[in-house]
Design a protein that fits this description.
Chain lengths: ~325, ~425
């Protein structure tokens, strides 16, 4: 099976602030230069900033070298891409009528526009797909990219996510962010220019649907089934690496996520795979909307750690990505 | 691995069921209705609306209700049991999901069937477990926005426990949902995938399309030289995709076989196609590589926007010719003339229609043509159904952002 390598990562994220500073957390000019982003939505600007960092390019650079445009794809997760634009347009339409809408903002009313702007900016012509399941769409982008690399639809894919949280942080503690990882098919592409060595190898990705029952609990059989599949993404036992297990979910789904975490830890134990920092268990609050899981993946990817990263939504979506330290650089990775 | 279709479902302006869809397409006469909202325009725009009784609100927004209707039909036809669905996949193409839950007042008119559910937060009513609550904008804690919860409500309702994604590649979302569903099967991530797409009326969508001059004020007439844009439509469509081995094991009849599918992105403009159509041609070429010879018909994305229509027909014709055929040997069909542009559902409708064309061996006549577009290199059936000369059908999907997906289907052996 095609080895999938992570060759670059990038992220921008708003964090809760306690200093009372009301200023913007993100300076587009610092990331994107002085021109060319005025009509982009905030989520689009974040996405470009994160993806450019992952690709090691500047916004006004030509498309990345090292991969043909037709073999280069983009997949983007988002849940709120159009939320604010939609509300503003609806207010304008029902108030002053259609002429109150500026044509320049119309593209912002399509969920795929952030991803499409990234594809335009980077010249990605293999595909540009936008995924929109709440919370999990960011990690789903990695699952999608890994699958597309394995079926030969591209040689390099940027898997990314971007969201602008609702006003007042959605009354549930959500924050803006974007993150991106560059994935390449080992043996087929060297990654984009500037990637000097792979950071990590992706073992695989899966998604499942595990809806909470009427009492908020998970059906045990379905939970075990899913946990076994997640555990199977870990490297085979016998290796020297213990697995770091990172499980993220919105605070409302924390009990649900804890049950999944315990079931996955048990399934790993059944396979003889040790969990690193097992005593430091627990789950992580997913505060960055559909970007959360991808943000969780970036740390271990950058460090080349063996890890299973899970993203879980309140509604029942579950996505997991497995990584381990990069395979030794072979002749295929030049 | 071969991917086949064992179940079809649809709800459209013709009502519920693939039978009603096929009759409506053969009738070739449907025109749009007034939309349920004036959308900030001087007069009510047009809409190919789903009849109220065919959009039962069941605790979701209108798109969720339409999708549930289409998926129920497809799952029943495929004979899938609850056990079969435990590990099945679910891929959903939608542009706007349950957008009506975020558009207060929509549904008070022609879409009265959804009206009771059209106020913000109504999606909470039936409950899909913890996390379900009043909806999208600032009126409750602990709830993601309603618009893109349709996949979770479908998975919960039908007990679909395997891999699932919502794809929102604008107007090609449905074509990508089918292609991605096939990828899940081809890579062993699922044996069975319910691939579906749906979108319902949105005041903001219609208003902004009008702002861009993309709407035809009369009706959708993609093959007429007088065409002046698209007309939106409501609907949902579903396919049960399955590995050929799974269908054989379950003893289910096969309606169509996926022969190939290609994806590409223009990387050109957020709203307009790249004029040469090179990337669309490339995805068509990949899809055509899966069939022998020239497809008998092409179910086109063609929506009445002249530039897009011309680029699409030229690109597909060029791909057919590069494969040794002639565009004139392909029967071009544009269903949007009688059902409108159903956005994220359109690509799935294209595939359902392809399966029906293969089943009946007929291509429905193109509707609302007074003066035929002389620039279309494909053969355009008019006035009466045309026999399908070869048992293969191409389906194309394009969307804002230059997101192209092309699939080819052939009849079961």
């Amino acid at each position: 099976m095609t080895a999938v390598l992570i060759t670059g990562v990038g992220a921008v994220a708003e964090e809760p602030r306690t200093d009372g500073d009301p200023g913007p957390w993100f300076d587009p000019a610092a990331h994107l230069g002085r021109r060319g982003w005025k009509y982009f939505t905030p989520a689009t600007r974040y996405l470009l900033a994160a993806a450019n960092e992952a690709l090691g390019r500047r916004h006004d650079d030509p498309p990345p070298a090292g991969v043909a445009a037709e073999r280069f794809g983009v997949v983007t997760g988002t849940q709120y891409a159009i939320a604010r634009v939609h509300r503003r347009m609806d207010t304008v339409l029902t108030g002053e009528g259609v002429h109150g809408i500026s044509p320049a903002e119309v593209p912002g009313f399509s969920m795929n526009t952030p991803g499409s702007q990234l594809a335009i900016s980077t010249g990605a012509r293999a595909f540009s797909v936008t995924l929109t399941n709440p919370v999990t769409a960011g990690l789903e982008a990695v699952q999608f990219a890994v699958t597309a690399l394995r079926t030969g639809r591209a040689d390099v894919v940027v898997a990314a996510a971007a969201d602008q949280a609702p006003e007042d942080h959605g009354a549930r503690g959500e924050y803006d962010a974007a993150a991106a990882v560059v994935l390449s098919a080992g043996g087929r592409a060297s990654g984009t220019a500037g990637a000097t060595r792979p950071l990590a190898t992706v073992t695989g990705g899966i998604s499942r649907f595990l809806p909470p029952g009427p009492a908020g609990d998970l059906a045990p059989a379905a939970l075990d089934r899913s946990a076994a599949r997640v555990a199977a993404l870990a490297p085979s036992p016998g290796g020297t690496d213990a697995v770091r297990l990172l499980v993220g979910a919105p605070p409302a789904a924390a009990p649900h996520a804890a049950a999944v975490r315990d079931a996955v830890a048990e399934a790993l134990a059944d396979r003889g795979v040790p969990v690193r920092d097992a005593d430091a268990g627990g789950t992580r609050p997913a505060r960055h909307c559909a970007v959360s899981g991808l943000l969780d993946l970036i740390g271990p990817a950058r460090a080349g750690e063996t890890a299973l990263v899970l993203s879980i939504s309140e509604l029942g979506h579950l996505t997991a990505i497995g990584i381990h330290r990069a395979d030794p650089v072979g002749p295929e990775f030049i | 691995m071969t991917v086949v279709v064992t179940g079809l479902g649809a709800v459209s302006c013709f009502g519920s069921g693939t039978g009603a869809l096929w009759e409506g397409l053969l009738g070739a006469s449907r025109r749009p209705d007034p939309a349920p909202d004036v959308c900030g325009l001087p007069a009510r725009p047009h809409l190919y609306a789903v009849p109220d009784g065919d959009a039962p609100a069941r605790g979701t927004g209108r798109t969720g209700a339409l999708l549930a209707t289409a998926v129920a039909e497809a799952v029943a036809e495929a004979g899938l049991s609850a056990g079969d669905l435990l590990d099945a996949g679910l891929t959903v193409g939608t542009s706007l999901g349950d957008i009506d839950l975020s558009e207060p007042g929509v549904g008070a008119g022609a879409a009265a069937g959804a009206g009771a559910d059209a106020r913000p937060g109504a999606g909470a009513a039936a409950g899909t477990g913890p996390g379900t609550g009043p909806g999208p904008f600032g009126d409750a804690v602990g709830v993601p926005p309603a618009t893109h919860r349709v996949a979770a409500s479908l998975a919960t309702r039908f007990g679909i426990g395997g891999p699932g994604q919502t794809l929102s590649t604008a107007c090609s979302a449905g074509a990508y949902a089918v292609g991605w569903g096939a990828e899940l099967i081809e890579t062993g991530q699922a044996d069975v995938v319910v691939a579906c797409g749906g979108d319902a009326f949105s005041r903001v969508a219609v208003g902004t399309l009008q702002r861009f001059g993309l709407l035809d004020g009369e009706c959708c007439r993609p093959f007429d030289t007088g065409r002046a844009g698209m007309v939106t439509g409501e609907g949902a469509a579903a396919l049960v995709l399955e590995s050929a081995e799974s269908a054989r094991r379950r003893g289910r009849p096969v309606h169509a076989v996926l022969a190939g599918h290609g994806w590409s992105c223009d990387a050109h403009h957020p709203m307009a196609p790249e004029p040469s159509g090179e990337q669309l041609r490339r995805s068509a070429a990949r899809a055509l590589a899966g069939i022998d010879g020239t497809p008998g018909a092409a179910v086109l994305h063609r929506a009445g926007v002249a530039v897009n229509d011309t680029v699409e027909a030229a690109a597909i014709s060029a791909a057919v010719e590069a494969a040794g055929g002639s565009g004139g040997d392909v029967l071009g069909y544009a269903p949007k003339a009688v059902m409108g542009h159903t956005a994220g559902a359109a690509g799935v409708f294209g595939c359902v229609i392809a399966a029906l064309v293969l089943r009946h061996g007929l291509v429905p006549p193109n509707a609302h043509v007074t003066d035929l577009d002389p620039d279309c290199p494909l053969t355009v059936p008019l006035d009466r159904p045309a026999p399908l000369a070869r048992p293969s059908v191409l389906v194309s999907g394009t969307g804002f952002g230059g997101n192209n997906a092309v699939l080819t289907w052939r009849a079961a052996a």
